[in-house]
Amino acid sequence: MKNIIKMFIAVLFFLFFQYAVSIGLIVFLGTTYVEAHEYYVITLLNFINDLGVCIFMIIMLWKVIKKGFNSWKNKIKRHKFISLLWDIWVGFCALLVFKYVISILCSLISLALGVTEETVANQQIIEELLGSATVMMTIATCIFAPIAEELVFRGAFKEAIKNKKVFITVSGLIFGFMHVTQNLFLLLGIMAFGLFVDYAIEHKEKFKKFCVTEKTLYIGVIILFIILLIGNNSQILLSVDKNEIIGSIVYISLGCFLAHIYAKSDNILYSIVVHALNNILSVLMVLL
User: Fold this and answer.
1) C-beta of residue 240 within 8 angstroms of C-beta of residue 179
2) What residue segments make up the domains of the chain, in order of their start?
3) DSSP string of 5-49?
């Protein structure tokens, strides 16, 4: 229960700081609409936001980070530093290949739906901010963001969700939808669904007493979740632009892949470094 509470606190805190940026704009500028010359203010607020989340998550999940450092320390002591670097490099290259395949898939989906591919709003904002205050935004994007996001969406989630497949799925969905919508009910619904399925898997013997098989239980839970999701969030889902939905596939896939890295290595530092390398490459592509 303690780890579940930590997971919800991590997500709520992350969302609070996201909203804090908008609140800061209202306080300093009197509006959420920003002119080109005012992007520096957004960059500064974003920098403070990422730093704050980063510090909070490091304190809350220090045991997870410490475990990762101890694992790397033992590898270095056993003269496996090259092996450690190789694992990171393989993970990063695999991520690039995976993203390329998903990008092709998204292009095919866009073509099938007759949707003109556009840059997701989140990516557009990052590109604008990089041009206004390059150093601050680079530090926030390449250092603070990977640490904060991995600790929230991988570290906290894995502590609460024990089943590997459920953890990877929920982590990817939350990570992806967070880049499209910050609707709290939708995000909490996905988290609650994941926790329920995880509990059902861990305690499947209890359900057998009611003559309910594992397969029928999962199907029933999924159908119930879809009904609740559509019922409570139909207007939100319908209002989301098709480009944003298609764009979220990339983020969901990225989240699932990073969750897989963490689940396989059982070391949060691997996913943090691979995430950071991915962001560094993205920043370089924008700047160059």
Assistant:
1) no
2) 2-161+267-287
3) HHHHHHHHHHHHHHHHHHHHHHHHHSSS---GGGHHHHHHHHHHH
What whole-number distance in Å separates Cα of residue 185 and Cα of residue 193? Answer: 12
Condensed to tens digits (0 to 9), the pLDDT of residues 62-96 reads: 999 999 999 999 988 888 889 999 999 999 999 99
Q: Alpha carbon 143 to chain centroid distance? A: 15
Residue 174 CB neighbour total at 10 angstroms? 24
What is the residue whose two structure tokens read 């290595």? 265
- Measured CA distances, 35 to 25, 64, 131, 141, 221 (Å): 12, 41, 13, 22, 47
Please give the single-letter amino acid code of residue 52.
Answer: G
Contact present, 94 and 102 (Cβ < 8 Å): no
pLDDT in tens, 236-279: 555 556 666 777 788 899 999 999 999 999 999 999 999 999 99
Task: Quote the longest CA-to-CA distance of the chain.
Answer: 65
* The token pair that represents 107 in the structure block: 């292009």
Distance CA 82, CA 90 (A): 12
The number of helices, as runs of H, and strands, as runs of E, in the chain is 14, 0
Extract the tokens encoding 43: 């960059």
